[in-house]
Design a protein that fits this description.
The complex is a heterodimer of chains A (114) and B (331). Chain A has 4 helices and 5 strands; from the N terminus they run E-E-H-E-H-E-H-E-H. In chain A, helix 3 links the parallel strand 4 and strand 5. In chain A, helix 1 runs parallel beside helix 2. Chain A has 114 residues and is an alpha/beta fold. Chain B is built from 7 helices and 14 strands. In chain B, strands 1-10-9-6-7 form a 5-stranded antiparallel beta sheet. In chain B, strands 2-3-4-5-8 form a 5-stranded antiparallel beta sheet, with helices on one face. The radius of gyration of chain B is 23 Å and the shape is globular. Classes of the chains: A alpha/beta (114), B alpha+beta (331). At the A-B interface, helix 2 of A face loops of B.
């Protein structure tokens, strides 16, 4: 599993790639709170995720809950079919804001800001 | 080096102890041999994030649940202990599945950290009318094997426990009518079969079809044995449960047209003929159990052989069903 982080002016994107499973979730888990501690909006890119287990989902839930408490934005972008099937199974696709692409998130944010 | 080994041994002992405590939280199946519910759990590691429970309430309703806590490590095991304890306690006084999960959800949401959550199917079986009322909170869809042979997936209608406060948990009702409900964790469908292929739901359905004629306990053992190939490490905990409401000798007569005749002939013998139009049963599987090894399956056959003077069973023509003929001399 790979994790890459991209900084933008108003938000940070964390991209997960490969299998997000038990052996690497602690790393994933630390990356999400790290961004939120800096009081930045967070998008998690799941486009290249081939498998995600429940502890990987838990790290997303933790991010969502923390962001909500801190009034920050948290969303998922470009969710792969493999990740989406797990989210749908648990009906979590209705909880997380999900965007097809970064453009959609930016348009959405502009609407909210204006 | 020696210190590290001592520490490793201490950790192993603690994990063994934790596993022992976890096993104590699962239902004691020796107390529930006549229950229409059977369950099995095989942890991937020393401790498990899966759990299941079932017990009979004072009013006769049977409460059951099967759940999967996110993650597989010690913190999952501790949340498992908390969730199962809360459910076991509250299900004695609350008989509405949605209300029960709402109460447990609020409690878990307030106290749990690190985004942990619990997916669960939880409900009540009313043995009098063969209905099951349940809620599915973000859990892998259970499979309802209808008496007609069809399988129905019962998808989640609510979020897992611990994600949002004040969540609603819609309740579904199914009528068993000779069917069976299978509830399982993703460790089952995410397993590989003997050819190293992922089982998926289709594979589980095939295994159920292959084993549905045998007793529920044996069926669970057979299914779990087939999905744990010895050459492959187990990726996730495996938990599987089956609910069946019919426990009598007619349980395999899945069709509505089942018939029973009792004739008193002038030869002083009572003739019983039971006919069903279900799938032909495997006659080699119908045999009396050894009384030293009391289990529900086979005991009926033992009683029939003891009480009746003559007994015969077989298939109807062209595989249309089964018959059971019994004769008792009364003079």
């Amino acid at each position: 599993m790979n994790i890459n982080t991209k900084e933008r002016e108003k938000y940070t994107i964390i991209g997960f790639e490969g299998d997000v499973d038990l052996s690497c979730s602690p790393e994933a888990r630390k990356s999400i709170p790290g961004v939120l501690e800096e009081n930045k909006n967070l998008l998690v890119d799941l486009a290249k995720v081939s498998y995600i287990d429940s502890s990987g989902i838990a790290s997303l839930v933790e991010g969502y809950q923390t962001a909500k408490k801190q009034s920050l934005k948290f969303g998922l972008v470009g969710v792969s079919d493999a990740a989406m099937s797990v989210l749908k199974l648990a009906r979590l696709d209705r909880v997380f804001p999900v965007f097809d692409a970064l453009d959609d998130y930016e348009k959405d944010s502009e609407k909210e800001d204006s | 080096m020696a210190d590290a080994l001592v520490e490793q041994e201490r950790m192993r002992k603690e994990l063994d102890l934790a596993r022992e405590i976890q096993l104590d939280l699962l239902p004691d199946e020796s107390d529930t041999t006549n229950f229409p519910v059977k369950g099995m759990n095989v942890p991937a590691l020393e401790v498990s994030g899966d759990f299941y429970d079932f017990f009979k309430r004072d009013d006769g309703l049977i409460y059951f649940n099967l759940a999967d806590v996110s993650g597989k490590s010690m913190n999952a095991a501790m949340l498992m202990a908390k969730a199962s304890g809360l459910l076991h306690h509250l299900a004695r006084s609350i008989d509405e599945p949605g209300e029960l999960l709402a109460r447990v959800n609020d409690e878990i949401y307030e106290t749990v950290s690190h985004g942990m959550f619990v997916t669960i199917v939880s409900g009540f079986i009313d043995h009098n009318n063969g209905t099951i009322k349940f809620s599915n909170a973000g859990h892998q869809p259970p499979l309802f094997h209808h008496k007609s042979g069809e399988f129905e997936e019962l998808k989640a209608s609510a979020l897992p426990l611990g994600i949002l406060p004040e969540t609603e948990f819609p309740v579904s009702t199914i009528h068993l009518e000779g069917g069976a409900l299978y509830i399982f964790t993703e460790g089952v469908t995410g397993s590989v079969d003997e050819d190293q292929k992922l089982l998926h739901v289709a594979g589980l359905i095939k295994l159920i079809e292959d084993t549905c004629q045998i007793s529920a306990s044996k069926r669970l053992q057979d299914i779990v044995a087939k999905i744990r190939h010895p050459n492959v490490g187990q990726r996730d905990d495996i938990t599987l449960m089956v609910n069946e409401a019919c426990m009598n000798v007619m349980q395999h007569a899945y069709d509505e047209d089942e018939q029973g005749e009792i004739m008193l002939n002038n030869d002083g013998k009572l003739h019983f003929r039971l006919v069903d139009y279900a799938k032909p049963i495997d006659l080699s599987l119908v045999k009396p159990c050894v009384l030293d090894d009391l289990r529900p399956g086979g005991l009926g056959t033992h009683f029939i052989n003891e009480i009746m003077d003559e007994c015969d069973m077989g298939h109807l023509e062209e595989g249309k069903g089964n018959y059971l003929e019994m004769i008792k001399k009364i003079s």
